[in-house]
Design goal:
With 261 residues, this protein is of the alpha/beta class. The protein has a domain of 177 residues: Rossmann fold. The chain has 9 helices and 8 strands. Strands 1, 2, 3, 4, 5, 6, 7 and 8 form an 8-stranded mixed β-sheet that branches. Helix 3 links the parallel strand 1 and strand 2. Helix 5 runs parallel beside helix 7, helix 6 crosses helix 8 and helix 8 packs antiparallel against helix 9. The protein is globular and about 55 Å long. The N and C termini lie far apart (40 Å). The structure holds S-adenosylmethionine.
């Protein structure tokens, strides 16, 4: 189980929505609508449906939310009142029955592909290419977490955090900061047109709760790696809590469109 909870997903959603590249989001929306009134979108690793809310309610479009965590799918119901036809499917992306993607015009995901391994992307790309289905994958972490004011231990902390990002999250060695690039090269290999755009978080005092939760998660991940001396980690965490300042987290959005008309 991934361990993502609704508190964290609810906390990050406003920052995610503000960060998404709106040109790519609009292009993904337009691609979906061009499929007609009953076009189907499948959101992978949907959590509680943040991507659907980013698209907005759209009479006619059908959505299928896919996640392996039944608690998140259950929580999605309450958060998607008024969104029309929304099907929820419990499934593991590591063994995704291709039939789940049947009929889809667009597959979406957010904050997902940095958790998965290259073979998962390759298998998905092959299945989507067979179906000439597009992919819109938002908010792929790119390895840059920069704090302001800077501290001497920042580079050591970031190196450990990024090493943790590349660990196995249940779907093989994670792509971590390499996710957007892996999506681009894999889909280009299938003849897709790929567009990428930055979608960074810029967290200051107005995002205090998210920034504090991010700091806790960041320090926890560094601790798990065992790469940073405990005293250094504790001093760094304490200094950050005393003067949290601002945090910039790099992400990229990716839109891949199949070849042909
Ligand atoms: C960072 S959360 C993002 C959730 C949602 N897309 C959002 O933006 O709020 C990652 C999601 O991927 C799901 N997930 C992780 N590993 C999975 C797997 N092996 N199969 C299906 N879903 C998975 C988690 O349950 C979680 O909902």
């Amino acid at each position: 189980m991934s361990g993502f909870d609704t508190t964290w997903l609810d906390l990050r959603e406003p920052a995610d929505h503000a960060a998404r590249d709106h040109t790519l989001l609009n292009a993904a929306r337009a691609h979906l609508r061009a499929g007609g009134a009953s076009a189907l979108a499948v959101d992978l690793g949907s959590g509680t449906g943040s991507t659907l809310r980013a698209f907005g309610p759209d009479g006619g479009t059908r959505w299928r939310l896919v996640d392996h965590d039944p608690r998140l799918l259950e929580a999605a119901s309450a958060r998607l009142a008024g969104f029309g036809v929304v099907e929820r499917v419990e499934a593991d992306l590591g063994a995704l029955p291709p039939a789940i993607l049947d009929g889809a015009r667009l597959v979406t995901a957010s904050a997902l592909f940095d958790l998965v391994s290259r073979p998962v992307v390759e298998r998905l790309a092959a299945v989507l290419a067979e179906r000439r289905c597009a992919l819109y994958a938002a908010l792929n972490y790119d390895g840059r977490t920069n704090w302001d004011p800077p501290l001497e231990a920042d580079p050591e902390m970031l190196a450990a955090f990024n090493a943790h990002q590349a660990g196995d999250k249940g779907l093989g060695p994670a792509l971590g900061p390499g996710a957007a690039d892996a999506l681009r090269t894999t889909f280009e290999g299938h003849g897709y047109t790929v567009r990428v755009a930055p979608s960074p978080w810029r967290l200051g005092h107005e995002s205090e709760a998210l920034r504090d939760a991010l700091l806790d998660g960041f320090a926890g991940a560094v601790r798990e790696t065992g790469r940073v001396e405990r005293a250094v980690l504790d001093r760094w965490t304490e200094a950050r809590r005393e003067r949290p300042g601002a945090c910039h987290v790099g992400h990229w959005d990716v839109l891949t469109l199949p070849p042909g008309p």
